[in-house]
């Protein structure tokens, strides 16, 4: 059971929010990643060898013994995965952030954590016991964070079959659909979520992002501005607002909003340097130098 405690902690409705997810994405030192990756590889190699020996067993007694050896090694592997991820999940639960939705703008997990998360979620999903709404919601979030958007979509849809009008699940399914480039379906989920919870800033921001991808910039601006009325100065929303103004060639406003986004999150300075949404602004004879003065050409 310890192997599932951290999976169950992910995405608790009303609990795991944007701020908590940012904590979840905190990188460990590279040396730890390398050590963990080596252990993951060693476990998988050992399990593969035990599976081969199990298949090659000559008698029922030997096969049963090999099966028990493989099962014991798999339990050891799951305990290891739980051990390296449990402290992060604990911080999610303890943060008690107020919004229980995924942020579609979060960067992906480090590869080692993504693999561990997807593996544990897959095993939990395949277990024979009946899944509750909360189980399905949490599994959807786990697969989403692992970057397995199709599997996230599957579990969010199953959760909505049990509770069709849950706004957090509608939002999160919309985020998965948006990542799969199924924007019309994503917009339908965002809109239904906002009918049920009209003042959720994350859903407004993410619907705005989907609209912007469809080049519906004026509608996107309305969503971003409404989100900022509810959650002022949020750097992700300010950044999206700057992108929309840049794409509309309102370069003066784009720079103003980008400066605010950078003040809220220094990472936005680096993102802006390569973001295609700012390509025309970067190359503009008048405004390009002001853009580079704001973002700088090198870190530091």
What's this entry about, in short?
The protein has 300 residues and is mainly α.
Report on the structure:
The protein starts with a helix and ends in a 5-residue tail after the last helix. Helix content is 74%, strand content 0%. 37% of the residues are buried. Mean pLDDT is 79; it is low at 1-33 and 87-100. It is mainly alpha-helical. It has 16 helices and no strands. Helix 1 (2-9) runs parallel beside helix 4 (60-95) and helix 5 packs antiparallel against helix 6.
- Arithmetic mean pLDDT: 79
Fraction of residues in helix: over 70%
What general outline do the C-alpha atoms trace?
elongated
Major β-sheet annotation: none
Order of helices and strands: HHHHHHHHHHHHHHHH
Distance between the first and last residues' Cα: 46 Å
Oligomer: single chain
Question: Which percent range describes the beta-strand content?
Answer: under 5%
Radius of gyration: 22 Å
Q: Tell me how many strands there are.
A: 0
| Weakly predicted, low-confidence segments | 1-33, 87-100
Which features characterize this protein?
mainly alpha, 300 residues, disordered N terminus, elongated, 16 helices
